[in-house]
Amino acid sequence: MSREDLLGGLSAVATQGQVRQISHEQLHRAAWQPRRSFPRDSLLALARSVRREGVRQNLIVRPSPQQPGRYEIIAGERRWRASAPDLAATLQLSVDEERGLTGPPPRTLPCLILTLDDQDARRLSAVENLQREDLDAIDEALYRLLLIQDVLGSGPHADPDDASTLAQTLGRRLHAIRNHPEQHGDERARLETLFASLGTMTWESFVTNNLPLLQLPQELLDAVREGRMAGRSALLIHRQTDPALRQVLLAASETGASFQELRRLVDDQQGKRWKGLAADVRQNLGTRTLERLDDQRRARVMRLLEQLQDELQGSRS
Known about the structure:
Layout: H1 3-7, H2 10-13, E1 18-23, E2 27-29, H3 40-53, E3 59-63, E4 71-75, H4 77-82, H5 87-91, H6 95-99, E5 108-113, H7 118-130, H8 137-152, H9 163-179, H10 185-198, H11 203-210, H12 218-225, H13 231-238, H14 243-254, H15 259-269, H16 273-284, H17 287-292, H18 295-316
Parallel strand pairs: 2-4, 3-5
Antiparallel strand pairs: 1-5, 3-4
């Protein structure tokens, strides 16, 4: 689905603004922006590009409702941060890293200035950011919540710094819509239309797999935001009631253990190693996998499969 389809009536508005150069200090981030994660390495790489080539894509801004004479960033905050004069201090760059920033930072940035109310600004920001590939799982879930609030008309927006409250507020309503479809036909239809436009998942899948990320404790929330842990791994750790097992899983995750490896540790601890192994075999075993094997390895796998088949058939007799 295209950006224009997602924006609907806003698409025409987004092409009618004025483009002009605005100084860095006249711009500020929006207080309602949920995005908090700007990985250091990628921001430094963008800063190097900005110093060499300038900012090549317009930021999208609106006149600031709170700060007259300034502009609130709707989309493009990462480019604004990468252009900051005090970037070296903010990122605590080493001497070599700072030396790699050739040229001065741009004094002004190209901006598309739009006149939008709060709801349309949030909607446009969410659509623009969800089409980027550098969002972490927490930020992506928060932007989807902004759009869900928009389509459900669920009242004032919660503080994006309080992800747990935001998830609880909308989570209760989403669970009610899912569990009682006969009472919420219109809302279900609006959610289905929204998520069909966004792609990648259904709204029911979002409620089950993504919404719980926003209710993680701060330690795990930070680990996901900083790229030190996958969202699935954080949820797996959070669901463990044994404090000792949680510490084992946290330590393993910090050393780079994958979700599958963490799940095996849980299965081993609970005496259910066979469940994880069965899931791994089911995931890896398929016609295409067997076709990629050489003849010798395929023959060995076939012998093992025949032994497995005999064993399973014997257990049913």
